[in-house]
Design goal:
Layout lengths: L2 H7 L2 H13 L4 H18 L23 H13 L1
């Protein structure tokens, strides 16, 4: 649903209710990353602890790369075209 459609179909009160619901029961990739990180860090911290430092959920989040510059994106595109 695009923003314009949402604004046509949902009033401010319903939007506020969804925001409140999200604060209590969040969804999406960010919370999914945290949940799997919590699971993995719990397993590692309890079953085979090899380091003195406890692992945290954030230690298992996917690594993000830095943004590419326009020149870098053009170089990648050229490489894909050339094969």
């Amino acid at each position: 649903m695009v923003r314009r459609e949402m604004l046509e179909q949902m009033d401010a009160n319903e939007f506020a209710e969804w925001k409140a619901y999200y604060r209590i029961y969040p969804w999406g990739w960010e919370i999914d990353n945290w949940r799997i990180g919590l699971l993995v860090s719990t397993i590692i911290n309890t079953a085979g602890k090899t380091s003195k430092q406890n692992m945290q959920p954030k230690d298992f989040y996917p690594q993000t790369t830095t943004k590419q510059s326009d020149a870098q994106m053009k170089a990648v595109a050229r490489g894909m075209i050339r094969g």
